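User: I'm writing a short methods note and want a consistent example. For Phosphate transporter, I'll paste the sequence; you return only the structure tokens, no commentary, since I'll be parsing the reply automatically.
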Amino acid sequence: MPILYLVFALIAVALIFDFFNGFHDAANSVATVVTTRVLTPGQAVLWAAFFNFVAAFIFGTGVAKTISDKLVDPKAVDVYVICGGLIGAIVWDIITWLAAMPTSSSHAIISGYAGAAIGKAGWHAILIKGWIPVIVFLILSPIIGAVLGWSIMTSVAWLTRHSERYKTERRFRHLQLVSAGLYSLGHGTNDAQKTMGIIVALLAAAGHEQWGKASSNSFHGLAGKHEIAWWIILSCHAAMALGTMSGGWRIVKTIGSRITPHLRPVGGFAAEMAAATTIGFATIAKVPISTTHAIGGAVLGVGATRGPHAVRWVWGEKIVWAWIMTFPGAGLIGAAGYAFAHWCIAPFIRG
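Assistant:
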């Protein structure tokens, strides 16, 4: 029975991580729409949180299955590995939030999870085949975001070249509400699924796999019937939405104005559409993508349309280094978290 209490506690911790994910990545969702002054910070987080939650009823759960089954050998996973992975992800998110660096909560959770598994079973616990698309998208997502951001911004500039600037700005202030909503929709569906995958893996490791499976009357999304229990889906999306509503204002400035100053509604629209498209493509491919990578690359691409000097490349360099450090950083903390759980928590459970 005590192990069941630990399972419930870890589900709560997973939802706390999901809250931190929304909190930490709130800046990604609202930075452009706040920087362009289309919405106030309060309005922006409510707008983003709404779409974070609505995503539960639209998309499937393919990304969650990738997290639970394809990155780490299920035979190497126990409740203490899950505990260590969550510790690694949460601690890394807090560290990077304090440093005001927009790193990826997505990569933090999979790195913490992998680090904890390695701490228990060694490197053979890692399923290399499952990591290949993750690494590929680590490299490609900011590039795709930047190319799409540049392309959309260039196309919009050409299409509106004969329009008065005032009318164009007013039109795109309305359109940016749509693009910000689409971005938050993608953010919600891809990021919430990472926590779903962790909870499903936890239940399987604890011998309660059936609790995580959808019942015969489970609701459907556009991508078909959900394979995960509705209580997991809704609780993960709700936790993320609440985290987004709490905001992560330390990072807004980095994404919204330090990368490329003087971002306007037209640029905000282009960046958000580019990022939303990148995230949507990855979600369809069932790959856990970094929404931070997508929006950061998109903002860089939009800024580059005004010439190389319109982008503060030093901030892009700092963000890239922060992204690179997430894998070893969160992984090491995850391994330490597993050691703590194994040596300090497990004796009480066994006793």
